[in-house]
Amino acid sequence: MPPQSDHCRWRLRPDVVATVLNDGAVILDLRTKFFFSANPTAWSILQMFETGATPAEVLELGQKWGANGDTPAINRLIEQIIAEGLVEPVEAPAGAALAIPMIAWVAPELCKHHEPLQRIMVSAFDPGMPLAE
Amino acid sequence: MTRTALAPTPVEAVYACGPVRLAVVFDDANWRDALHGLLSQYDAPWPTPEVVVSVAIERATAPSENREPAGAYLRSYRLRVDRHGSRLLSRSRVGVWMEFDLAGRTARITVPFHSDWPELVEEVEQQLVLLLARSWSQAGWTPLHAASLIPPGEKRCVLLCAPSGTGKTTLTTAFLRRGWRTLGDDKTLLRAEAEGVVAGALAQRFHLHPSASRWFPEAGNLARFPPYSRWTDKRIVRIADVWSDRLLERASPAGLLHVERVESGMSFEPLDRLKTLNTLLRQVAIPTDPEHARPLVSCIAQTAAKLNSARLNIGHEAFTDPATMERLDECLRSLLP
Predict the structure, then answer these.
(1) Interchain pair A35, B133: CB under 8 A
(2) Mean pLDDT on B103-124
(3) Minimal Cα–Cα distance from B179 to chain A, Å?
(4) ipTM of the complex as predicted
(5) Which domain holds residue B257?
């Protein structure tokens, strides 16, 4: 079964920023300062949440991408996205869906780096902690 | 760097800071003298200023508006910064305020009456660093706290990332002696262009403590160089004055070295993609505002995607051992295949 309700609509939080690369995307949550590396499949699924999507809609699109045997992988990713707080529930009805290009299906992977970036900087140029000299 | 005294009172000066030209009006000459070290350090040649910012620094009581910044935009050890539309509002620990109109490119720094002069200077400096970092970003450049090394005959560089005090400058000079070149100290600007990411020089000088003379005998007694500021013993050493023909103004980042200091010896291990990204993202002060964070994250992610990376654990005395340096030279070149 998909996580949460099939029909609950979720949208990427506005303070989650993404940068698209040739082989996926980098996602930074500006609230928690954790960052993630998404492979092309995970990024395609995340893109669905940019305008808002339900788990059922994500699964449906996954089937079109050829994810027939990989429904559990999609569900795990949706669970991860919700658990990490990258998306928030929205009341709005379905809007115009983004035109997400067809992808060659591989299992979605969203790797979270174990340590958040600095929340308090040394300065506006040098965020790092200096060594005691 | 160019600095032109225009009038005695109030004291005005213009500083070329890479792609940003800063026109400053100081309340008095003491402020100009105290801040000159910071503002004059960005001495790398730059074709034309892309952004001009005017800033007034004046003694006054705190602004009447009672909106203490909470640090929602950015927090540092000394500053709490909020964004209100096109304005940044920043307050320091002892009450130095800066209001920066991003659209109008004007800023006002208000300094309270306070007995601790060095503390005030430090906090005004931090406000100016914030102003410059944001202005460089507005000009399309990402400020990166990293040094750089370029092998002879190359235009590709290895970025050196490490916390302050870890030995980036020592490592850089050790390689300058071997014919490598650099963009400057550990302040670098990055920009994603159509042909790839470009790294630009900001400051072509080192700030060295006189005790570092033992590492750089060719520099002679470092105490003879002018002091960086009255608050530190560090001296301003222009790289070209000691190591001639070792400066470049632009390079293409192709390698990354995450430097860690250990007691002795040397080890070198490759970094995977996520660790490379982690290392690079930690060298940029990323505000929590999505509009301002997005271009910085994008530039860093594009840069990281093209880098061959490694972690270097290096002991204090490694730079004096020719065999270790030879091995290290090979390791660095392996990042630029």
Answers:
(1) no
(2) 93
(3) 28
(4) 0.88
(5) 143-334
